[in-house]
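Continued from yesterday's entry.
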Amino acid sequence: MARRHQSSDAEDLLDFGDLLQPSEAAEPILGKGVRGALLEWLEEIWAEAELIAANLKPRKRAIFDGKPGTGKTTLAHHLSARLGLPMLVVRPERLIDSFVGSTGRNIGDLFDMVAKTGPVLMFMDEFDAVAIKRKAANHGAEEERNSWVNTLLQRIEQYDGYLIAATNFASHVDPAIWRRFDVHITLELPGHFERERILERYLKPWGLPKQPLRLLADSMETASPALMRQFVEALKRNLIIGPKVGWDLRRDQTIDRIVAGIQPHPEFGKPRLWSRGAADAAIAAMPWPLPKADEIDETAAPPSAPADTVVPFPAKASG
């Protein structure tokens, strides 16, 4: 079914995506290069008056590219929060339509609606699906695709607000559209320091002493932030739900169960932990049960409990 057109209500902005508020943003854990590029861009935005006085304008359009799960949406949301703007997350299925001419009209309606409803940061996810390279039109489908890409190109040129596009496939984006973006940031997989900080963040309210945390970060080399978050959140679910339903909560059995149920993206390869499971040295060094973050004593001797010790969770309270 084709989208409604010529809407007049600001609420219709939600037809095109989800609106994320600044208060919902999380601060990303970034490598030095990306952090520097982002801060440079923010300083430029905040110096708008000085730039205008010198016949310059701050850049307002950026493409974030990188493999899945590297934090493109989180980074864009953080930027929108730093600017004090809500972020409209537009996904391609909200725009691409099977009716001839509808996708181009949807793109036009999106930009018209954003201009009408006030300042937002527009975030176009999976951008390559909409901004796909134009080709010589040998049949109707290619002609239709070329037409909507032309519309997108024109609308981007005319748009004066903040626009961030994200793609896992930078090489698929039409070159003319790529050139219309002033900032290009590639998000790489996190290094060791960033992996420690990511694990530390998502483990809370639990935590790990420095040495076990370092070893776990080592075992997560080539893991994306999304994969690390999945692993840690699965671990916490086991600790919370396991006692209620009678799961085997011995350390090694818990780790092997989690690793078996979460797989890394094929493009990344398997981190060491996914090859060795509970036999990895990082798991042998992991205190069990996990301590709460505010109870960790870095001066204490490492625990000597065997790996098959059952976690002493309290019994479920009776009715």
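--- second protein ---
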Amino acid sequence: MKITEPGCYEISSERYHADPCETPSLSAGMINDILVAPAKCFQNSKRLNPEWCEPEGQDKFTIGSVAHVLFLEPDKFAAKVKIIEHDDYRTNAAKSARDLARASGKTPILMKQMDQIIAAQSAFTGHQFAANAFQGGKTEQSLFWKHAATGIWCRARPDFIHDSGAHINDYKTTSNANPQFFGKHAYDLGYHRRAAWYLEGYEAVFGKRPDRYWFINQEVKAPYLVSVCELTLQAIQAGQEENDRAAERFARCLVKRDWPGYRHPDKPDHDLAFQCDIPSWAYAQIDERL
């Protein structure tokens, strides 16, 4: 069944990522692609690209994503993950167990890796603020709405929504959860756009805007440190402006059925040569060498 009415839906992650809207919809991940080049958005979309296929020989989830399932969807862990009772994949028995898990649609994970995830879970629950932030709400709710300016379908799947609507949580695993570096990390990965997109979706569906959008960051190596970070309103506004540009570009590509590569934003219908400069800091290094 297709999603034909805006709202909050309880559907599987598989159905959500397959894009169940009546016409192709835009997600936060697609925004990251389409702002770089619409062709990347098309190539990586299961709904848009008729030749799309799951990469072979790769697990559907990283270790961090397995932790995501265990923390946020523990009731679905057995259906999504298969623990391999081996230390590595060097034996034929381990390889066979891994391949059988993949064939059944599950993610294989070694026992020693599972031990790391259990330790990370203990560190997570030991962080009082983070643990409390995930109380009194629901996980993995799917939001669907229509973009106010373009009319395209939009979707988002927050990790956690508090029942009061006061805050949305986004659980992230990372190599470095130090808040000192989160701003750069957030910009590099488009988190300012993601937060703005999810806040817009909640407001479109429920008629009010959450007060907080928290990124719950956890390191993937011992001692599995946790930090809770919130982007500034200025960063969220910048993300909103980029999201609106992405929605316009997505709507235009849908109408024209054209998904171009690298083009100047002011000349989206033409392939052009680009004039590029070296970074400003490079000039200082050049002066120092001279």
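The longest strand covers residues 167-174. The domain at 7-256 is CATH 3.90.320.10 (Lambda Exonuclease; Chain A). Will compare against the first tomorrow.
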